[in-house]
Write a structure and sequence with these properties.
about 130 residues, mainly beta, globular
């Protein structure tokens, strides 16, 4: 099991940027594929972005493609989500997630395949 702690949430105006960070501990971070999900009030949790163990392959939801960038630093045991051109519809609680991956190049975009989750951090985008 890996423990995940998100940081970097907050309030931002539409068109602004935020950078989320997720710090992992407890297991070998580079053994895990990582992802970001979000959940808005009254809605189901939805996939945002994923990255493989090595960081070489990434995958994004259509709603954030071209605006958000996921990255990881295996030396620092962190994964980040750079969010640009934020819009009110991006308002949600954002969660970091981890899953053991035996293939270095696999990314995972379904929530049920993730075993470990952070507590979430709130992003509010005002219009």
């Amino acid at each position: 099991q890996v423990q995940l702690v998100e940081s970097g949430g907050g309030l931002v105006q539409a068109g602004g940027s935020l950078r989320l960070s997720c710090a992992a501990s407890g297991r070998t971070f580079s053994d895990y594929a990582m992802g970001w999900f979000r959940q808005a009030p009254g809605k189901d949790r939805e996939f945002v972005a994923a990255i493989c163990r090595s960081g070489w392959r990434t995958y994004y939801a259509d709603s954030v493609k071209g605006r958000f960038t996921i990255s990881r630093d295996n030396a620092k045991n962190t994964v980040a989500l750079q969010m640009n051109s934020l819009q009110p519809e991006d308002t949600a609680v954002y969660y970091c997630a981890a899953t053991l991956a035996y293939n270095t190049y696999i990314y995972v975009y379904t929530a049920r395949e993730y075993s470990d989750w952070g507590q979430g951090t709130q992003i509010t985008v005002s219009s």
